[in-house]
Amino acid sequence: LEGRNIVIEALRRQKRAVKLIYLDAQAKRNSKIEEILSHAKAKKIQIQRISRQELDKKSHTGVHNGVIALADPLPVWTTKELIDDVFNRGERPFLILADEIQYEHNLGAILRSAMGAGAHGVIVPTRRGKGLTAVVHRVSMGGSEEVPLIRESLMSAIKHIKKAGIPLVAADMDGTSLWESNLKGSLALVVGGESKGVSPTLRAKCSRTVAIPLQHDLDSLNVSVTAGIVMFEKCRQDRAEG
């Protein structure tokens, strides 16, 4: 885990054990450093103060802000396990299926929006696109700690989603206006890769397609922006219903 914010999020959320924290030996004390040190003391996590050069060598992202932590892996979920868990809690499943996301910053942003919108999980293919990398952790700003990222065949995931009676809705530029679409209740939102959009195969599995109305002849938005807008429109509709 690289960067002060993501290390703090992992320590606060306690979804997994943080084993060791490397801290820039010359780091100035501020509120974030103090919080990291406080959590580490309370949880008996070892702190190693090392040089900036040593931190640079350990970094996978090149952006560590003087803090790198080693932690256990996050809990692993399947789509079926997650759906069952959500129903057992008396909630209506809200899932995001993201196909062929090639840029780590986009996947990180989708996870961050998913956390803010109260989504229960983000599902990505086993082989296509990015998984849970150090960059995704950093960009998600806690989203990757709170929202399970499931790597599974999307066709397998869709089978479980349909069996559970959860509607599948694709977000693509030639769909029905988002402002005229009902997104209330259980929902699985499908978004496609940066350059391809939602594939015809995935669209055929969805009950309908929604599109964000755009002006000035703009034909599409960044996939993470699209996902965020649709997620929060769903939140707005659910809130209005409640």
Walk me through the structure:
The chain has 242 residues and is an alpha/beta fold. The chain is 41% helix and 20% strand. It has ten helices and nine strands. It has helices at 4-13, 31-43, 52-58, 79-88, 104-117, 134-140, 143-146, 154-163, 200-205, 223-241; strands at 18-24, 46-50, 67-71, 94-98, 121-124, 149-151, 168-177, 187-191, 208-211. The protein has a six-stranded parallel beta sheet with strand order 6-5-4-8-7-9. The model has no long low-confidence stretch (mean pLDDT 94).
Summarize the model shown.
By secondary structure, the chain is of the alpha/beta class. It has helices at residues 4-13, 31-43, 52-58, 79-88, 104-117, 134-140, 143-146, 154-163, 200-205, 223-241; strands spanning 18-24, 46-50, 67-71, 94-98, 121-124, 149-151, 168-177, 187-191, 208-211. Strand 4, helix 5 and strand 5 form a beta-alpha-beta unit.
Key structural traits:
20% strand; alpha/beta; three-stranded mixed β-sheet; six-stranded parallel β-sheet; 242 residues
Question: What are the SSEs and their pairings?
Answer:
Blueprint (H helix, E strand, L loop, with lengths): L3 H10 L4 E7 L6 H13 L2 E5 L1 H7 L8 E5 L7 H10 L5 E5 L5 H14 L3 E4 L9 H7 L2 H4 L2 E3 L2 H10 L4 E10 L9 E5 L8 H6 L2 E4 L11 H19 L1
Parallel strand pairs: 1-2, 4-5, 4-8, 5-6, 7-8, 7-9
Antiparallel strand pairs: 1-3
